[in-house]
Amino acid sequence: MKDAVRTFVAVEISSAVRERAGELIEVLRASGADVKWVEVGNLHLTLKFLGDVASREIPRVCEAVERGTAKVAPFELEVRGAGAFPDARRPRTVWLGVGNGAEEMVELHRHVEAKLSKLGYRKEHRRFQAHLTIGRVRGGGPAVVELGQRIEQQSDLLAGKMQVREVVVFSSQLDRSGPTYEAL
């Protein structure tokens, strides 16, 4: 799509949670598994990935997100427990989960998605599960087994609590050094 912006909707995380997530990444990195770790500065809780959006549509997207989020009061969110999709024994995506505040995140996602669907964006068929992606596994072998064990050892980790007061529409620019995100 010409003149398009790669776009997603997310909740930014606090600096304390960001720091704790960075510490966890270092613990997991020591497994030696081939993982593309997310840069700590890029960590966020994605509500909806939109893909390429025409530049002229960005204001409508932002307005829809604002209307959707107006229905949800600010809330406390607890980032807790390392995990993986599909599971720690076969990790493909490594994440930190959400404890308290998970229901509110589901509600936030539902309202935002409802408003965006009116603009023609497809609803997800999978159940929304709030999580903070910290890495994507690229290889296999014994190091991935070690990674899975380390993930399981961190399943009760409390990465921190934070207030969710706003949702941000981001652009994502991909290049060799990794993605760069900018609030729209």
In the CATH hierarchy, the third-tier topology is known as Cyclic Phosphodiesterase, Chain: A
Mean pLDDT: 95
Examine the secondary-structure arrangement and name the CATH architecture: Alpha-Beta Complex
Taken from the alpha-carbon principal axes, the silhouette is globular
CATH class group = Alpha Beta
Strand content: 35-45%
Structural class computed from helices and strand pairing: alpha+beta
Instruction: Count every beta strand, where a strand is a DSSP E run of 2 or more residues.
Output: 9
Uncertain residue segments:
none
* Rounded Rg: 17 Å
Largest sheet: 5 strands, antiparallel
Quaternary organization:
single chain
What keyword list fits this structure?
four-stranded antiparallel β-sheet; 4 helices; 184 residues; Cyclic Phosphodiesterase, Chain: A; single chain; alpha+beta
Commentary on this structure:
Helices cover 30% and strands 37% of the residues. With 184 residues, the chain is an alpha+beta fold. The protein has a single domain (4-183), classed as Cyclic phosphodiesterase (Cyclic Phosphodiesterase, Chain: A, Alpha-Beta Complex). The strands form two sheets. A five-stranded antiparallel beta sheet has the order 2-6-5-4-7. The chain has a four-stranded antiparallel beta sheet with strand order 3-1-8-9. The longest helix has 16 residues, at 102-117. The radius of gyration is 17 Å and the shape is globular.
